[in-house]
Amino acid sequence: MALDIYVGALTLYYAGKWENAGQRWARKHGATYDIIRPESVDDPPDPKDVRTVVVAWRDALAEAVRDRSAGSLTWDETSLTYASERPGWDGFTSLVLWAAYAEHPELDRPLRAVEEYQRDPAYLRSTAEGTRSRYSHVIRDIEFWLPWPFDGTLVASDPLGNKVGIGSSVILARQLRDLNRATWNVDDATLEQWREDVPEKGSPFDALARFGFATVIDPAQGAADICLPMKLDY
What we know:
This protein has helices at residues 10-15, 21-29, 47-64, 88-103, 121-126, 136-139, 169-182, 188-196, 205-226; strands at 4-8, 82-85, 144-146, 154-157, 163-168, 230-233. It is an alpha+beta fold. Helix 7 (169-182) runs antiparallel to helix 9. It starts with a strand and ends with a strand.
């Protein structure tokens, strides 16, 4: 199962009016790309109906976190601008663990991707109850990052009623820059090269973490800059 990152209005996302990295590649190369999901996509929802649900959800969530936010609690659900990247599960979870091991340098980093990363000792230390992680919006179990700088992370219902972790793209981008300075300390040109060097299955942990970082930091900063949500898609 692939893991993509989507940045844009959630109306487009839930109405299926966007392309993931695999679809984009297939379109450019004249290939076929089929998405198999547990829910039916035979009758895609009307974007107007989707927007009504998303806006109500957005406004209710804004009210719930109003006292924790320093910014404007809104974004434009009529926007047609979106972007997507594909860090893949190994790239994304290796980035999560890279941040956890940066907080716990006394532990030895793994050599390869960790399949059950939420059982990893560094991850467990960084997410233990009462722990204040420097990379909380990177490490914690988050599915949505919203374009508001608010304290902490939270668990709330998404527009479909599922309980999910929610963070801030503003803080995520800041924490990723801090992680880069604390570990790799590389420039934009190097990050561009990392994005192009897609690691194969079974690649070393550090190569996977680099690719994950390079494919997450741009969407995170972009989401903050254009004030639109960022979401995991799988």
